Amino acid sequence: MYPCLLHSLTPDGLDSIEEGIDCITMLIYHSYKDQPLSPRIWKLFPQLLYICAGNDGDMDGGFGFEFVTQITVALKNYFSRDQKNANAIGEDQTKTHL
């Protein structure tokens, strides 16, 4: 499921971006409350930010700014469900998720 969700968050998967964001939001919201989110779910987090903001030097932002409302709900779920790992550095990453 991870490759499909990741593809939906790219410019090539733009036709299914809304469904991908909704799936991520529901997966996070309905996951086990007593367990942290999986590292793969956290790997989708930077891509959600990229959709809105683009790369660090992009003046115009990302390619899907019109999805900011849906993405905000997903981001809220990330932080409300797994605050501990929000401050952690993910595998193969050099920065925290914040």
Overview of this structure, please?
The structure is a single chain. By secondary structure, this protein is mainly alpha-helical. The chain contains 5 helices and no strands. It has one domain. The longest helix has 15 residues. The mean pLDDT is about 85.
Instruction: Compute the number of structural domains.
Output: 1
Number of strands: 0
Q: Quote the distance from N terminus to C terminus.
A: 25 Å
The fraction of residues in strands falls at: under 5%
Roughly what is the average pLDDT, rounded to an integer?
86
Brief characterization of the structure:
The chain is mostly helical and 98 residues long. The chain has helices at residues 2-8, 17-30, 39-53, 68-81, 83-86. The protein has one domain (2-86).
Topology:
Layout: H1 2-8, H2 17-30, H3 39-53, H4 68-81, H5 83-86
Helix pairs in contact: 1-2, 2-4, 3-4
Key traits:
0% strand, 98 residues, mainly alpha, 5 helices
